[in-house]
Design brief:
It is built from five helices and eight strands, in the order βαβααββαβαβββ. It is of the alpha/beta class.
């Protein structure tokens, strides 16, 4: 069974809006590229899928936009070519190497996890909350930003039950960001 990993940037006060933390730098983009490369496929909700597509889909010209720094291109290439699953009841279709996921979320994600491979990557805010509530997330990776945002959506706001986690890895960046990797502890009967 391939693990489902939830990864997101989060400020010290829990804000997970994509513009609330530090701007991406070369070190963080290398980290995110490696995270994406550890996954066989990406799992997004509609909002995250559309946001990522608008920023990281390679233009039809084959030339990356001028705003993109050279050190962002490996990330862009990795996410652009990745297989994507999009959970949405409102989209009628997707492309960008993507497939719609419909029906019962728990059953659909369980089927994806049953496929052979290294893992699935999920990002965003709403979909990961639903997956955490269903007990389907096998690993949580937070890039904790040394910022107090004071606003915005907060990490896993509305979680129905407490999830106990154990720290399995920690990496500090020069910027002061700390990447922390946790796995849920499984209660034994």
């Amino acid at each position: 069974m391939r693990p489902l990993r939830y990864s997101i940037n989060v400020t010290l006060d829990g804000c997970c809006h994509h513009e609330a933390g530090l701007p991406p730098d070369e070190e963080s983009m290398r980290y995110w590229t490696a995270e994406m490369e550890r996954a066989d496929a990406l799992l997004f909700g509609r909002v995250t899928y559309q946001m990522m597509e608008s920023a990281w889909r390679q233009p039809a010209t084959g030339t990356w936009p001028d705003w993109m720094d050279e050190w962002e291109i490996p990330f862009a290439e990795t996410i652009d070519r990745a297989k994507k699953y999009v959970v949405s009841n409102t989209l009628s279709g997707v492309d960008w190497n993507a497939e719609l996921v419909r029906g019962d979320l728990g059953q659909a994600v369980q089927r994806l996890k049953q496929e052979p491979g290294e893992g699935l990557f999920v990002g965003g805010v709403t979909l990961p909350l639903a997956l955490a509530d269903l007990g389907l997330i096998d690993e949580y990776v937070f890039l904790v930003q040394p910022v107090l945002a004071g606003h915005g959506p907060t990490l896993l706001a509305g979680l129905r039950e407490r999830i106990q986690l154990e720290l399995v890895d920690r990496h500090e960046f020069r910027s002061g960001v700390a990447a922390v990797r946790y796995r849920p502890t499984r209660a034994t009967a």
